[in-house]
Amino acid sequence: MAIYKRRTTGFVTSGPYRYVRHPQYVGFLLLTSGLTAWSYWIQTHTFGISWIPYQATVALWFAVLAAYVGLALAEERYLLNEYGQDYLDYRESAGFFIPGVTKRPNDILTSVSVLIVLMVLLLLFSTYWGSVTPTG
């Protein structure tokens, strides 16, 4: 038995899109930031077992971040041309990548900054985590 749900017209503003305009990119970036930090830890605590150096792994994550920001901006340009004022109104109610930050251009700058800080903190944690030795 197949369930068919009729597709609605217009752009989606419900579910996670109620809070952020690009939840799929946020999810992917959060997932890959954790995987990158894990990979960094493995590379720096296991005699460098890896196909590529850890610097390249981290640089690749930042390149993916830049690519997703560019892709999201291109999508927004398309949606603005397609839906006009309706999309402008929606853009004022949902953050770019971070919920609650909706004022342009701060929403984009804040979103990217938060993701960069998250990655730096994960890398610092990954560096420190493996170097702590238990006492006692």
Q: What does the model show?
A:
With 136 residues, the protein is an all-alpha fold. The protein is 63% helix and 0% strand. The protein has helices at 23-45, 54-83, 85-93, 106-129. α1 (23-45) packs parallel to α4 (106-129) and α2 (54-83) packs across α3 (85-93). The N and C termini lie far apart (62 Å). The mean pLDDT is 86.
Layout of helices and strands, plus pairs?
Layout: H1 23-45, H2 54-83, H3 85-93, H4 106-129
Task: Summarize the model shown.
By secondary structure, the chain is mostly helical. 63% of the residues lie in helices and 0% in strands. Helix 1 (23-45) runs antiparallel to helix 2 (54-83) and helix 2 crosses helix 3 (85-93).
